[in-house]
Amino acid sequence: MSAQTATSARPTAELKGGLAQVLLATLASTAGFWAWLAIAPLQKTYATQMGLDEGQISLMLATPVLVGALGRILVGAMTDRFGGRKMFTAVLLISVPAVLLVALSGMINSFPLLLISGFYLGVAGTIFAVGVPFASAWYPPAHRGLANGIFGMGMIGTAVSAFLTPRLADGIGYLPTHLLIAGILVVMALMCALFLRDSPVWKPNREKLVPKVLSTLKLPVTWEMAFLYGIVFGGFVAFSTFLPKYLTTIYPDEVDVVGAGTRTALFAVAAVIARPIGGVLADRFGPKIIALISLGGIVSLAYVVGQQPPEGIVTGVTFILMAAAMGLGMGAVFAWIGPSTPPEKVGAVSGVVAAAGGLGGYFPPLVMGATYHADTNSYQLGLWLLVLVGAFALVVAGMLRDVGKKK
What we know:
Elements: H1 3-14, H2 18-36, H3 43-50, H4 54-82, H5 84-107, H6 111-125, H7 127-137, H8 144-152, H9 156-171, H10 174-195, H11 209-217, H12 220-250, H13 257-285, H14 287-306, H15 313-340, H16 346-371, H17 380-399
Helix pairs in contact: 2-5, 2-6, 2-7, 2-8, 2-9, 2-10, 4-5, 4-6, 4-7, 4-12, 4-16, 5-6, 5-7, 5-10, 7-8, 7-16, 8-13, 8-15, 9-10, 9-13, 12-13, 12-15, 12-16, 12-17, 13-14, 13-15, 14-15, 14-17, 16-17
């Protein structure tokens, strides 16, 4: 065996067992995403019991998203320093009191406490910034699109939340539902502490936090990927959060709370399935072309949604295809980051990009609430803004340098 062959084989041997580690991280992320979006599936219950208007509902839905977004910058940088095992465990445990506070706010019908607990609940959403550098370190560069695509499937937690939370609340009760979510967070934290281990090729970055974040912001790839991810992941989070509200408002006679949760779960599942496919395709053909396909799909499908077709097959297929387009784009963006970023800054860049994705999901619910036309029962203006922003992103993506397909 030549020295070059031995050198190339050594990292592969060191990374043995990476799939099991990434899958465990994906389960942890699923629990975090479930907790992060625990408020949205019960939004109609809160609105009815607390007498909330459109603006208050939008603020209630958007608050966890905002904190989960901005917190990813800090958590991503901390993961570069402390490693994924410690950070997964910490984020999951810190999120437990937030879930319990949400339960308390609903039991006493306190909107101010619900906003405060929703702010705290945003911590659970930062878990994504832990997993990207963790998963990347377990795979060689040519397969990091796949690794991050697998980890990204943890956002199935949004589907779990949309599908199970309203059913559990109806079946076992409001408080037991939140106690169950809190218990799952504790169990997953213990599993991470006991069984998760950082990649043997990972090395802690001990650069001070503020200089590190500032240096990360000087990288062009940070801003480029942040913008694109703000559209694809931001759109996903926005629809995952607001879709139950949208469906029960636009189609009140056809869709109830449980039905809206089911449709939102299907939306999330479509994106989850498409995300690793996007990563694999980006590894094979290059992330730029996959990102362009994703954005083109989002723009055209948002236009169809904007026409507010009758509820049924057309709306169902349109939302599922839109989710799939967003999932492809998510996989492509994080496949783009790895080859374009210094290895010691993958966590910091991923944190900023993930934060941008979360921020992309923060504003649309507020915009939708502000642009809702009660006389025509329409969110058409807000959806047109999505079309315009997506079209602009399509142009920007076309101008960026591609890292090329992997051999």
